[in-house]
Design goal:
294 residues, alpha/beta, Rossmann fold, eight-stranded mixed β-sheet, binds adenosine-5'-triphosphate, binds magnesium ion
């Protein structure tokens, strides 16, 4: 039943792409930065599996690992990138050489230290890379950017340059305090992108809603910042098991509770009623905004 529906959506999106020279191609890719206050709350696992869930719904997805020095996405995704964005910026590798294609045609680009060190490259070098990557604005519907935890200026820049921010937290009080600290920095920096909450590792739906409601309430009350609850993910041993097998949850245990929750999040991203969102700026827009900030 679920599979039927997914296949129908894939078919629909293939048809709309084929129609009229590809209507779907006119909008640039939507850039989602996935972040958290506290580390280890489940960002990388969410990024990989959300990418697969979106791909199941007919979306073309590119993951960019912007967590410098950590190869989280590679481990969870079960793919290895020999080269990264730094090689591209230095001109020693081409885009096809740094892009890896994983399961379900989800593409993956390792940021290396390239995104952080953008300002060490000349305008010309950066522009050359943007020009190459711009091609992918027509080839990709979603770009999911996995960041490290915390409020470093690098992470904040990724958050501020995104079209949308997915803020991941767990119900733990420490994770919530750190999430609030991050939102506060975002508000003070006059961030414009909508922030959407994902509460990970909850015991049940009620806990997810309660945690999100609490955080949304303080953000509105003290920062005048509207947020939206995008979804919750149940605490599920299958998540850790999949990571240990280096095979994504959605492939290894597609019927797991957590997998179902992530599929629901993907559906809400695609079809859900959302608060007013900014137009997609695409990968080139993301780089442009990033460059303005550094
Ligand atoms: N829904 C879940 N249920 C059970 N365990 C989970 C769930 N989500 C994540 N985990 C566990 O949390 C651990 C950390 O997950 P992950 O690496 O995705 O977090 P992260 O936020 O990317 O961490 P970092 O901040 O270090 O990058 C994983 O090893 C996994 O076992
Ligand atoms: Mg991570």
């Amino acid at each position: 039943m679920m599979a039927d529906q997914a296949e129908r959506l894939r078919q629909l999106s293939r048809e709309s792409r084929a129609a009229g020279g590809g209507l779907a191609n006119r909008t640039p890719a939507r850039v989602l930065t996935i972040t958290s206050g506290k580390g280890g709350v489940g960002k990388s696992s969410l990024v990989v599996n959300l990418a697969l869930a979106l791909a199941n719904l007919g979306q073309r997805v590119l993951i960019i690992d912007a967590d410098i020095g950590m190869a989280n996405v590679e481990v969870i995704f079960g793919c290895t990138a020999d080269y990264n964005l730094s090689h591209l910026l230095k001109g020693s590798r081409t885009l096809p050489e740094v892009l890896v294609t994983g399961p379900r045609d989800v593409r993956f680009l390792s940021g290396g230290s390239g995104l952080r060190d953008l300002r060490e490259f000349s305008k010309l070098e950066v522009q050359r890379v943007i020009n190459q990557i711009m091609f992918y604005d027509q080839q990709v519907d979603y770009i999911l950017l996995d960041t490290g935890a915390g409020i470093s200026s690098t992470v904040l820049n990724f958050v501020l340059a995104a079209d949308e921010v997915l803020l991941v937290t767990t119900p733990e009080p420490t994770a919530l305090t750190d999430a609030y600290a991050l939102i506060k920095t975002f508000a003070y920096a006059e961030g414009q992108a909508p922030i959407r909450l994902v509460v990970n590792r909850v015991a049940d739906q009620e806990e997810g809603t309660a945690v999100a409601t609490k955080l949304m309430k303080v953000a509105r009350q003290f920062l005048d910042l509207p947020m939206e609850q995008l979804g919750y993910v149940l605490d599920d041993t299958a998540v850790g098991k999949a990571i240990r097998r280096q095979n994504p949850l959605l492939i290894q245990y597609p019927d797991a509770d957590a997998a179902r929750c992530i599929e629901a999040i993907a559906e809400r991203l695609l079809y859900g009623r959302t608060q007013q969102t900014m137009p997609s700026s695409g990968i080139s827009g993301f780089f442009r905004k990033l460059l303005q900030r550094i």
